[in-house]
Amino acid sequence: MTAIAPVITIDGPSGAGKGTLCKAMAEALQWHLLDSGAIYRVLALAALHHHVDLASEDALVPLASHLDVRFVSTDGNLEVILEGEDVSGEIRTQEVANAASQVAAFPRVREALLRRQRAFREAPGLIADGRDMGTVVFPDAPVKNFSLTPPRRNVRIDVCYSCRRMALVLTLNAFWPRSRNATIAIVIAL
Questions:
Q1: Which is higher by pLDDT, 66 or 1?
Q2: In this protein, which residues make up the domain named Cytidylate kinase (predicted)?
């Protein structure tokens, strides 16, 4: 029996700081990273590169099913790799944003991208950033977090290994009315 790779999901609205946290966690743990918000932009860019009709669900589904994309966090920066090329800047253009809105409207495209997102779950583990990672994409994730507000202070991530288990320690310099120096440590056994 093959063990299923662990997943940590970080969900929340844009601007909540989840991307920064996910990049830091993926680097610290040396796990894979999924930025689900970018995946629709990547699909849109791939469709534009391959001259696929953005109004054709039938043409977009195979492209979505076989989308060759990776997310790599290096030195706190997220690189989006499409078909071997860094397209991190290109997916942030208005043209791609408009195209992403078009492709996201198709139910079969969303279903194909759901399967593609689940395929990111590989050893040693996955950090998944999105809005529905813990509820829709990875409902069985052992660790789920939902962020409503941006982090107010620094986050330090330490990875501790022991013989049979790994623990992720998140240390948050919390914002408390009584003490701005208060610290919260969260230990997650994986």
A1: 66
A2: 8-146
The burial of 118, by beta-carbon neighbours within 10 Å (0-12 exposed, 13-18 middle, 19 or more buried), is given as middle
Question: Is the separation of the CB atoms in 86 and 77 below 8 Å?
Answer: no
Residue in the structure block whose two tokens are 């009584």? 178
Structural domain range at position 165:
152-190
Task: Take residue 138 and report the two structure tokens written for it.
Answer: 């990875």
| Prediction pTM value | 0.75
Mean per-residue pLDDT of the chain: 81
What is the distance between the terminal CA atoms of the chain, rounded to a whole angstrom?
18
**Number of domains present in the structure of the chain:** 2
Task: Give which of 100, 139, 101, 102 is closest to 118, Cα–Cα.
Answer: 139
Q: Pick from 150, 165, 180: which residue ends a domain?
A: 150
Query: Considering the domain boundaries, does residue 17 fall inside one?
Result: yes
20 and 106 share a domain?
A: yes
| Residue that has been written with the tokens 């789920």 in this structure | 144
pLDDT digits (tens, 9 = 90+) for 161-173: 444 444 554 544 4
Collect all residues with Cβ–Cβ distance below 8 Å to 126 and sequence separation of at least 6. 5, 6, 7, 8, 31, 32, 33, 34, 120, 138
* Planar angle of CA 68, 121, 102, nearest 5 degrees: 45
